[in-house]
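Record type: ASSEMBLY
Status: queued
Input:
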Amino acid sequence: MHTPTAPQPEQGTLPRQLPGLAPVLSVHGLTKSYGPHTAVGDVSFDISKGQVVGLIGPNGAGKTTLMKALLGLVKPSSGTIDLLGHRVGSSGWGTALHRVGSMIEAPALYGWMSARDNLTLQAMSVGVANSDRRVEEVLELIGLDHRADDDARTFSLGMKQRLGIGVSVIGEPEFVILDEPANGLDPAGIIEIRNLLRRLPEFGTTVLVSSHQLAEVQQACDDLVIMSAGRIVTTGSTAGVLAHHAERTFEIDVLTSEAGAALAALTTAGHVVELDGDRLILRDAAEIDGRELNRTLLDAGVIASQLAERSTSLEEVFLSITTPGRES
Amino acid sequence: MNRAELYKIRRHRTPWVLGGLLATSLVTPPVVMYFLNTTEPSTYMEALTNIYGLALAMTAAVFGGWLVGHEYRQGTLRRMASIDARRGRLIATKAFVGTAFFLGAAALIGVVGAAATELAANLGGVDLLWDGVARSMAGSMATAMVYGAFSLALSLVFRNDSYAMLTTIGVLVVFSPLLSLIPTVGDYLPGTAIDQLDTWVRNVEAFGQATISNSTALVVLTAWLGGVIALGMQLFARRDI
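Status: finished
Output:
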């Protein structure tokens, strides 16, 4: 288990990169300092085509600074970024940005222009052919077709967020960078965003998304980059990170009068058990078979009212990794 | 990119509000003069050329600052810079399209103002002499371009349209004329140089008594404008967005 006070970054290539295939994004030794404060420190990772990668970390972890650096909005103090075959900041980089869609921090909208005009402007800027048709497609995709001619300044936060996402994908980009896309959305909107993120790779789009909605990240993202205090704490497939950091636990509810007998039976069987009222908790239960536990209890004359196997969520893994002094 | 920039200008309200105000400021005086039975032709002509000169310069200061400043204010500069990383090109496109739009609109509104003046005078039985008016209005447009360029460059420095507009108008309209009263030093201020060149182009009386030649005034103005533009572009290219 990772020790938060002394992070051991697991930096490098995310799991599904095929050998010999150039990554879509390659970040190497990226550092961005503001005077004595290091916002991003020595960050390295690669992302392959078609991945949906979640960038997560607590506030101030350096996620937004990293995303801005990928777009050339922030100039790194040191390190290199190669995106879509171009070194960020090089002469060829300027036009390569047309192939990248982004929404950083808040949606950047022209408030006095309608949703349709905002999308049309972006389509013109990135050179979308047949932009009228594409604008209508995107309006439908983001569910704003019924408010297409209203000024963006009149929209709710969630609608602005959806329009911001529409602006970022209208050019059918090869790489999409989304910073907190679910911010301000209602549950239905969050599910729509999740579905959209899952669909983008079908068109060959690679996605880097930051979010505090960890349950959504867990469902939507193939891979994770977890940052804390400007550094990468861990990278890997979502399943891999969960498997590596997660803890399998059994929770057994019994009658209060039978709790002592249940504790004695399980302890005798070699399990490490915590008693919390009338609930018995078995941690580090990766090798334990639930049926075996039930049999042990029955042999001791205890009938469990509930025997539940519980896996650690990404939220718990995240907190255990990034919160100083907290361990699973 | 030029097309997108023109689309953006056309779809915003600010340019149309500015154009409306400029047109109103040109059309109103001849209408008032008609109802006041003004019979002096020079009054009509001076109203047209002087109001056009002043209002156009103010409009340019606001428009120039707005061109980039509103992008900072709305947070859309990040969106712009995320489309094309060539920041010098972004600003050059804005300046080029903004200048073309401004000059076209200024010429059209100038014609509207002149037509309104001619119509009001004609209805009042006053014959106007149009000699030198085109030259005067062209001079006003040139002066306005300088105001606009100052304001645009200052919006890059301040990252704020209000500060850019206020500084442009404050320095060129308020402080420069006042400081120009200081011997020698005053001649090398941007406002003094603009005033001198403006009077030369428009062939009218100067506000103060300049002691430098027109060519020196041109060098002074170029140095000030070039300096502010260079500073703005340098900061825009280097700063994080």
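Annotation: The mean pLDDT of chain B is 91.
Annotation: The interface with chain A takes residues 1, 3-4, 7-8, 11-13, 74-76, 78-86, 89, 238, 240-241 of chain B (CB under 8 Å).
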